[in-house]
């Protein structure tokens, strides 16, 4: 394709033909179009520095750099198109890939990511994030949920109840994301639902990131007594797979969308299988 | 006999702050996982018993615990099976069901015997890799399930012989 894309009657996701990365999302019903760049990145876990001997570990997120490394400049992609859904498979590296999927009637974009096993051959612990960059003027504000209930406004480098001196520009702005995180301006709201609790933030205006996986080589000295470095069944490290659901809508309409979808995530339909074709059903 | 108390106990143990935030030792991770898996095992029996009573039939219900990596021994090996979808929400929902299968053509019908549109697509290369030898499904059967509020609906799935010249699973040739 000249401009690879997937779409249904509600949403279109555009991809950059050169890089294979998501380049924009269009809400076709509301005629909203937002340039969105998405990629995976990783922060290097700290092994302590001149400011503090604190290392990154199970309790502590303390990246070395203020800016994470991109997983890849390009993702190789291929498209699967059927009458029921369209999806683009992105391969970022040998240990990071994603399927961007649109079902026929869904108003959200499904991002199914697979990350791991995180390589440690360079002796650097890594904390992997999925990041969306937009031109939204968010003025340092972003929103996360409080255990799936109240949505709390977060402001970068700020705490509402005391004078806050920020010493960790990345970790100091991370918040728990139990079900959702969003950024918005007057016209657009970009919301992401998670399928599990993760850490998330908006380190720069218009940007939104979620930590999806981490593997570290030092204990952080907070009591756990071991590094967060589970080798998994094959000794290479854990592979994790999860989903992010992405909505683009107006701020006034987004609440209804993400609340209903989050409810359906939390109380997802249960699928049970039985052999044979006898219909297990009574009309009563 | 199924019960929910085992899972209740396991979840109660996992309310410890180390379990919630993932700051426990690896051995403790294994223990939490074992307790939760044991609890879910007993709950599966409970759900199967409940479905048997509600449907008025006795079947060996199976739960596909590894659907995220397209592994389900029952749907992979059976040529005919039923899929019951239970919706715990207080409103009707429409949900997309994806099941690992080895056939390339399937017929899906709903509880009223109406044909449900479905699609068979090849399992992605990444999924095959992360399965790490578990499961052999080469395809995924996809269909949309409309389920009533706080209720369930059942679909009947039968593997069909592909007719000559009919298109197979959607091609995933890189483009």
How would you explain this protein's 3D organization?
The complex is a heterodimer of chains A (284) and B (175). Chain A is mainly beta and 284 residues long. Chain A has 1 helix and 20 strands. Chain A is globular and about 55 Å long. With 175 residues, chain B is of the alpha+beta class. Chain B contains 5 helices and 7 strands; from the N terminus they run H-H-H-E-H-E-E-E-E-H-E-E. In chain B, the strands form 2 sheets. A 3-stranded antiparallel beta sheet of chain B has the order 2-7-4, with no helix packed on it. At the A-B interface, strand 7, strand 8, strand 9 and strand 20 of A face helix 3, strand 1, strand 2, strand 3 and strand 5 of B. Strand 20 (270-275) of chain A pairs antiparallel with strand 1 (61-63) of chain B.
How is this fold's topology laid out?
The complex is a heterodimer of chains A (284) and B (175).
Chain A: E1 5-7, E2 11-15, E3 22-27, E4 32-35, E5 37-44, E6 69-70, E7 76-81, E8 85-93, E9 96-103, E10 109-115, E11 126-133, E12 141-145, E13 151-155, E14 175-177, E15 180-184, E16 189-194, E17 198-201, E18 207-215, E19 240-249, H1 251-266, E20 270-275
Antiparallel strand pairs in A: 1-2, 2-3, 3-4, 5-6, 5-11, 7-8, 8-9, 9-10, 10-19, 11-18, 12-13, 12-15, 14-17, 15-16, 16-19, 17-18
Chain B: H1 5-13, H2 17-21, H3 26-55, E1 61-63, H4 73-77, E2 80-87, E3 93-101, E4 106-109, E5 118-122, H5 125-130, E6 139-147, E7 151-159
Antiparallel strand pairs in B: 2-7, 3-6, 4-7, 5-6
